[in-house]
Amino acid sequence: MEQSLNPPYVADTAVAHDNNTTSTSTIWKVITASSVGTVIEWYDFYIFGSLAAIIGPVLFGSKGKIEDTLLGALAVFGAGFVVRPFGAMFFGRLGDMIGRKYTFLVTLLIMGGATFITGLIPSYDKIGLAAPAIVVVLRLLQGLALGGEYGGAATYVAEYAPDAKRGYFTSFIQITATGGLILSISVILITRKLMGEDAFKEWGWRIPFLLSGFLLVASYYIRRQLHESPLFAKAKATGTTSKSPLRDSFMNPVNRRLVLIALFGVTMGQGVIFYTSQFQAFTFMNATLKLDIVNSSIVMVVAMLLGTPLFVYFGSLSDRIGRKRIIMTGMICGALFTVPLFYGLKAFAGPLSEITPATVDAAGKAVPAVMKALTPNIPGMIAMVFCLVTFVTMVYGPIAAYLVELFPTSVRYTSLSVPYHIGNGVFGGFVPLIATSIGVWAAAQPAGTFAKEHSSLLGLVYPVTIALICFIIGMALMKDVRNVKLIDEQQPAA
């Protein structure tokens, strides 16, 4: 049953901040500054994965099999996700002890710097194993930085937002991940078209990475103008911040239980739905359906642009009807309809080509058979991806407000970041690698077997299973609270 009233809290009213008195102009400045930096960080993180098919042969050995270099690039892409929880613990601790603002200034600099350097790495043919080694180190740094970014941005905005509109205002932070993916795909597509395919594959792929340097300077300047969250500033001034955020987050039995519910009941399902619907769909169109990069980019960008307003819609709706029912509806839709929608993508893409049979013309001369490329149904494919993106917006739109309201100010940055980045990073981030690996294995099976016949989509069993498990746990254990007053020592009842 929905619990629209605030749960019981142990409050220290001396450090309470009345979010409802914050001016609208101040909130929008906070949202803009936080969102711009977060979009850039997601852009930095995504361009590697978006260019995996090209980067693989360049940095992992041009003489290797295409499948091996692609899997190698995806594995390194996934490595960045593995360390995100460690980044969440490290930077979450700093954010809860030192402050939100300065912590995500540091994460911005690390992320942007690592991305810029990636564009300067010599090829495998020139420096051998040093190339993939450098890539791995930079991806690990990016993962650590991103682990501290989201929690800081979500917490920072939420601690300014009015209690009754927290879902609405924090939903703008949720747009940033999709915005970063749209930006990365758009930059890659424009660069590719302007340079030509050969030049882009040879050296032009470096430009999207190098562009990050300019974006870093601009976003750092914008964030530098921010002030510390007033709620955290008051808590720090009165000495009520946590001396050991990690211990208080994970050793306190009540808070530890909430962290586990957040992970297994919400974020791991959100992670697989997000990366399946947006990143895996893009990889599937390029690597499996062999769709032209221009067409696949158009499909993804248009579908995501159409779906972007729904993040705000569902975030705002959660302020009125609660977070749980929206998140869980998106979760079960992702579990039930992802596979059919991918089959729809495959159907609308059509066969790679058709053979025009050999004939005889009117003069009796033989006309040989020819291969004729087919034109995919782009509007149909956009509709399929839009449905997938809609599930993302339902799960992701209200999730920042839900996680922020779950934990007290003294450990909010840490307690929120760790389950989010395990669910999003470990479970969600490995969707492309696991799904592609299962597909490669299935394609190698004997002809006529179920695995062989469905090899292109068999990998989806992984995200669908995770989403279903998360739905069951979330329905059983997740409490539906909203409009919670954020005060320093709040602690929901277990």
UniProtKB/TrEMBL annotation:
Q: Does the UniProt entry include the keyword Transmembrane?
A: yes
Q: Which residues cross the membrane?
A: 45-64, 70-90, 102-121, 127-147, 168-191, 203-222, 258-276, 296-314, 326-345, 381-404, 425-444, 456-477
Q: Which InterPro entries match?
A: MFS_dom (IPR020846), MFS_sugar_transport-like (IPR005828), MFS_trans_sf (IPR036259), Sugar_transporter_CS (IPR005829)
- Topological relation to the membrane, as annotated: Multi-pass membrane protein
Which is one Pfam family of this protein?
A: Sugar_tr
Give the UniProt subcellular location, in the record's own words.
Answer: Cell membrane
Domain Major facilitator superfamily (MFS) profile span(s) in chain numbering: 30-482
This protein's UniProt keywords: Cell membrane, Membrane, Transmembrane, Transmembrane helix, Transport
- Matching SUPFAM superfamilies, A to Z? MFS general substrate transporter (SSF103473)
Record flagged with keyword Mitochondrion: no
Q: Which CDD domains match?
A: MFS_ShiA_like
Descriptive protein name? MFS family permease
Species of the source: Hymenobacter artigasi
